[in-house]
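Appendix B, record 7
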Amino acid sequence: MRGRSYSPSPPRDYGRRRCSTSPRGHCGGRGRDLPTSLLVRNLHHDCRPEDLRGPFGQFGRLKDIYLPRDYYTGEPRGFGFVQYLDPADATDAKYHMDGYVLLGQELTVVFAEENRKKPLEMRAREHRRQAWVLL
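Structure tokens (predicted):
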């Protein structure tokens, strides 16, 4: 074999214009692709959505507050999601609320990487995990 250098071929969709999914569910201009959902970590186990609505609501109109619970025990998982209607409000809230002390806990606030999963998606994920364990 001759001394050739290996260069991988480009991805199949190379050169195509892709739309990233926006929180509103459609492609659009630059402003629509900015994050509107925040991941809030280190929540007290007694924290309720109403406890987050006041402090986070001062930065703009809220679309949703979700505090996940353990599927089997129903116990809080210690984190939550706060979603805004406007990406600029989410940016302001992230800047000001990171490090904020709520119910004796110092919060960590970052942009959420993905949109909130629907219950059906979570159940499907759990079924795949159980199938893997059985193999």
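Remarks on this record: The chain has a mean pLDDT of 79. Helices lie at 49-57, 87-97, 119-134.
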